[in-house]
Design brief:
- There is one protein chain.
- Helix content is 85%, strand content 0%.
- It is mostly helical.
- It has one domain.
- Helix 2 (30-48) packs antiparallel against helix 3 (53-76), helix 3 (53-76) packs antiparallel against helix 4 (81-104) and helix 4 runs antiparallel to helix 5.
- The radius of gyration is 20 Å and the shape is flat.
- The chain crosses the membrane at residues 6-21, 28-50, 56-73, 85-103.
- Keywords: Membrane, Transmembrane, Transmembrane helix.
């Protein structure tokens, strides 16, 4: 029954996001919000004692694992193609340790994985940001040159 309830939750949250999506300035992935919203209420239910942890932990872990993979794939778009496999090979397993720490309230796993994810994200994404800034500067210089030669 837990899988049916949680799947319906994903559909309901996803539907609500689809309806409200037009009101947001930035794009929101309805499926991502549906999955994340579902595992969030499951965790809150487990921690508050409203949900039986033994019945709901597996569902939460599945959905949280899906979120880890989804985040990795969303962020990989910012990387060069030769960095993407290394990014996923580091980010996803450390993300799974983070999920383990959240589900079991293991502070050691939580802290270590948060430090690991932060370090991985910093190392990979800062290069991406500086490269984009360089590309923007190149485009600006090109446009300025064209404007000077315009008339």
């Amino acid at each position: 029954m837990t899988i049916i309830i949680s799947t319906l939750s994903v559909f309901l949250i996803m539907g609500a996001v689809l309806i409200m999506r037009k009101k947001f300035e930035y794009k929101i992935c309805p499926i991502c919000i549906g999955v994340a919203g579902t595992w969030l209420w499951i965790l809150i239910g487990i921690y508050s004692g409203f949900l039986d942890a033994e019945k709901w932990k597996l569902i939460a872990a599945m959905f949280m694992g899906g979120s880890v993979v989804g985040i990795a794939y969303q962020l990989e778009r910012r990387l060069d193609s030769e960095e993407r496999l290394t990014w996923k090979a580091l980010f996803i397993p450390v993300g799974f340790v983070l999920v383990y720490g959240l589900i079991n309230l293991s502070w050691m796993h939580l802290i270590l994985s948060l430090v690991g994810i932060s370090l991985i994200a910093y190392l990979f994404l800062r290069k991406s940001a500086s490269k984009k800034n360089s590309q923007i500067s190149d485009k600006v210089a090109y446009l300025e040159k064209k404007m000077k030669n315009c008339c």
